[in-house]
Amino acid sequence: MFSILRSMGLTFLHAFHKRDTIQYPEEKAKLFPRWRGRIVLTRDPDMGERCVGCYLCAAACPVDCISLQATEDETGRRYPEFFRINFSRCIFCGFCEEACPTYAIQLIPDFEMAEYNRQNLVYEKKDLLIDSQGKYPGYNYYKVAGMAIGGKGKGEAINENPPVDVKSLIP
Amino acid sequence: MATIYIDNVPYEVKPGKNLLEACLTLGINLPYFCWHPAMGSVGACRQCAVKVFKDEDDTKGRLIMSCMEPVRDNIRLSVDEPEAKEFREHVIEWLMTNHPHDCAVCDEGGSCHLQDMTVMTGHNYRRYEYKKRTYQNQYLGPFLNHEMNRCIQCYRCVRFYKDYAGGHDLDVFAAHNHVYFGRHENGVLENEFSGNLAEVCPTGVFTDKTLKQHYTRKWDLTMAPSVCQHCSLGCNISAGERYGSLRQITSRYNGEVNGYFICDRGRFGYEFVNSPARIRKALVRTHLPEAVTKDVALQEIWGELRQARIIGIGSPRASLESNFALKALVGEENFHVGESENDHDLVDLSLKILQDTPARVISMREAESADAVFILGEDLTNTAPMLALFVRQSVRQKPLEQVVQASIPLWQDAAARELVQDQTGPLFIASIAATKLDEVATAICHASPDAIARLGFSVASLISQQSPAVLHLLEEEQAMAHQISQALLAAKKPLIISGCSSGSEAVLKAAANIAAALAEKNGGTGIMLTVPECNSLGLAMLGGHKLESAFEAIQNNYADAVIILENNLYRVADKSVVENFLAKAKQVIVLDHLHQATTDKATIVLPAGTFAEADGTLVNNEGRAQRFYQVYPNPEDIQESWRWLIQIGKALRNPSLTNWENLDDITAALAEADQQFKGLEAVAPPAGFRIAGQKIPRESHRYSGRTAMLANHNVSEPKPPEDPDAPLSFTMEGYRGQPPSSIIPFFWSPGWNSMQSVHKYQEEVGGHLRHGDPGVRLINQPGASFHYYAEVPEDFKPLHHHLFLVPLYHIFGSEELSIISPGIAERAPDPYVAICTEDARAFQLEAGKVLEFAVNKQIFRLPVKINDDITKGTAGLPLGLPGVPYEEIPAWAQIFKQETTWKHQPQIIS
User: Fold this and answer.
1) Which of A59, A64, A119 sits opposite B708 (nearest CB)?
2) Residues 69-108 in B contacting A (C-alpha not used; CB under 8 Å)
C-alpha cells in the first residue's frame, strides 16, 4: 500500500521537474558541433572544392553508400566528377569523416532530412557541396601536398624547397 | 636443401637463393624495395636488413642486407630481432622524409608497395619537420605519368628500363640527395615495355596515364583473369572494370608464359572496349530505327535464315568456343576461316611444324634461358613484343657462365653486370628490315624473305646432311651460315624463332629444318613460331575452308547467307572481292565489337562481347589453351558471340546447338568432337567449381559504393548479376583464400596490396604459381615424324620497274583492335612505303614524296620513307596500319613512272 502511494507521489513530483521533451519543431534541439548528422562536402579557404576524389570515404563506409568518380581539371587539380551518397543506407557513423585526408567530407549537426520518397534520399554532389569550410577552417590540402595544381607550382607548398635544378653541378 | 634458422626455427630451403627470397618463399614478411624477382639484388635501399648470428651462442649478431646474402647451410638469422626491426624502421623514415603528402591524389595509393612497407615496418608518424625536396615532372608520352617528388631512389626503374628492357631514353641524372629519374628532356618514352615501370616502381613516380583518365583504386575494380588479345603470345593479364567501363590492364603472373611483365600494346590497348564506336545494340538494316532488341533481332534472323543456305566465316581473334559454335551452326563443310589465304597457309604450316618437329616447342619464358638464338624473318619487338624481351635476356646466358665460374650468385645483379659488361651471347637475326634486337645481336642480315630462307636452309644443311644444301650462295652468306651453325651446335639450349610475319613459307620451312637438324644432335633444342593473331593457332587446329571458297560459294549461288564472326573482311581480302561478296550475299550477319567496314555492309549486326564481356579460350603460339573470363556483366544487349550463335542455333532448331547452355557445354562438345582438343576442359575449373561452397569473388573485400553506384537510377538495389559460365562471382562475396591459378582475378595478400603480392601465390619466388601455371598445352611432344623440307627457294633478283613488296609491322598500329585506343593511335606511324636510298634515287624520289604503285590491280599512293635496311629491289609496306589497304604480300609491285613536277605546273606563255 505504501509503495503504491510512494510511486504516485514520485510521479506527481515529476510534473514540476524540468521537461526533457521539447516542443519540436517549434523548439529546436540543441546539437553540438561534433554531432553526427547530415553529410556535407566543404570547400577550402580559397573556396575550391576540398574533395580530391581519393575514395577513402567510400572504402571506409560500412554500408557502402558513398560512390564517386575522381577526375582532374586541366591544371591537375583533382575533384569528384560525381559524388553520391545514398542516405537511405547511411548510418551516420562518421567513418567517412575520419577517413577523409582533406577535411572535405564532414558530418554536421542537422538531421532534418526526412523524405516521403526514398529515392529523394539519394544526394548528388550539388546537394552535398556547401560554400563553407565547415568545422575545420583554414586547412588547405593542396598547400601541403606535393602535386602542382593551378596557382601552385612545384616547391610552392608549405615546407617545400624550390624544385631541384637537375643540371646544377654544385655539390 | 639447406637448413636455415630464422628466429631459432629451422627451415629447409633451396640453396643458391638469397635470404630475402628464402624468407619470402617461406611466407615471412620482410620489407624490401630495390630487389625485384626478375631483376635480382643490388642492395641499394637497405630496407631488407636482418640480423645474422655466428652460432647458437652469439647473441649480438650483425646486421646484413638479406637480399645480398646467399643461403648457407645452418645460417642463423633473425627477422624479428629488435635492432633489425629498428634499423628497418629508420630506413623507411629516411626514405619518407622527402616523400610528399600525396597519397590522396596519387594513383598508386591502394596498390602501393611503399604504403605497404611503411605499414609493415611500423613507421606511422613523421618526425621530420624540415623542408621537402621537390622536382619538376616530365611529359613522358601517352602511357605514363611522371611525379618525381614521390621517388625513393630505389633505382628499379632504370634497372628495368635500361638493363632489362634495353631502353635508351630513361636514366638517372644529377647527384647525391637530388638524383633525378627521367629522360634527358621531355618526350615520349620510346621503349615498348615502358608501361611496366608503373608496376616496377614501388611508389607513384610512374603511373598508368590511361587509368588516370578514369581513375579507380585497385580495391574498387571488378577484376577477372584474362588473356591479352593483341598478339599470338597469350600473355596473362588482369582486367579491371568500374561503373561499366574497362579501367586498367595489369600483368598477371604466369611462370611459363609472360612472367612478371607485359608489353605496352597489351597494357594500353584495352581502350577499344570503351570506344564510342562499339556496337551496343543489335541492328537490323531493314528496320526503322535500325537498333532493335535481342528478341527482335533473333526473330528477324530466324525469318531470314530459316530457308537459307548459310555459310560461316570464323575469326582468328575470336575464341575457340565462338568459332566452334559457328562451325556447329553452319556445318563443317560451310565453315571458312576468316584469314587471308597467305595467313591461312602459313598458320597451317606453323601448326604442322609444331606438331611434327622433333625439337621442343618451348614456352615463352623458357626463351629467357636459351643460350643461342637464331631469329628468322621476324621483327619480334613489333610482332611478338614480349618474346623480344625474353630474347634480350637470353643473350646474357652465355656471358653469365663467367659469373657462375667466379662464384658470384646470378641474383647479384650489380656484380654480374659489372663482370659481364656489354658482352652478349650468340643471337643471330635474319630479318627484312632492322629490328630493335639488332643492337644485341652477334650477327644480323637484312634481306628479302627468300634470301632469309636460303640462309636458314644453308645453316640447316651445315648442321645435318639430311637437310638439302643450298646452291649458289654468296661467300659472305656462307660465312654467316657457318658462324650461325657453329654457335647453335656449341649451345646447350639453342632456340630457333620464326613465324608468319615475313609472309613466306620458305622461311618457316627453313626454321623447321634447322630445329630438326639441331634436335638430332641436342635434345635441348627449342623452337618457337609466332602466328598473326591471338587465336590463329586455335582456328588452324579447328580447321576450316579457305576464305576464297566462301567468296566462291556466294558468287556461284551455292549459298545465300553468311554469318561473319568478329572479323573485318577488308583486312583479310582484296577490297573489290569483299565488296562483290557482301553485295551478292542475300543476308550478311556480322557479330563484332566495333563498327567497321564489314559491319557497315551487313544486313544484321549483332553486338559481340570483347574479351572484357565474354568468356572463352584462346590457343597461343605454342599451342597453350588459356581461358579468359568476363570482367563485368554485359551492358545492354552485348553478349558473347558463342551465346548469340547458340541462340540463333536454337531459333533454327539446329540439333547440335540445342543442348548447349553455357561455356562448359561448348568446350565439352569441342573436346569430344576433336581429338586435338582433348584435355580442353582442364584449362580452367568448370562453372560449378566451388571452394567451401562459394564462388571466387571478382571484387576485393574493400569494394566500395555498392549501395550508391546505381542509386541515381533506382534507390532499390538490383539483384547481383549471376555468371552461369564461370566459377567467379560478380560481387565481393565468396571465398577469400587463394583460388586455383587459372582463376586468380587479382593478386592480393594481407599487408601486400601492390603487385608485389604475387610471391604469396608462387611455389617459390619467381617460380611457378601454386598448383601449376595456367593453361594446357594441346600440342603433344615430341612430334611423330619430321621430314626435312626440300624446296630451297631461288635467290631474290630485283626486277626492272618493279619492287618486291614485303610486310613490315608496328607494335603500335598494325593490330586491328589496339589501334582504336587513343594512346596507341598516338604512337602509331602514318602510312608509308619504305624503300632504300638506291631505289629512291632510281625512281627519282626522296623522303616524303608519294610513290605510286600497283599490286594485283590495286593502286597504292603512299609517301616514301627511306630505310637503308631494306634490300635493294624490295619495298616495305606496313600491313594493317590505318590507311594502308589490304594486299596479299609478299608480291611484286609495278611502279608507275614518277611524273616530274614541271608537267603539272601551268605553263607561262609570255
Assistant:
1) A64
2) 100-105
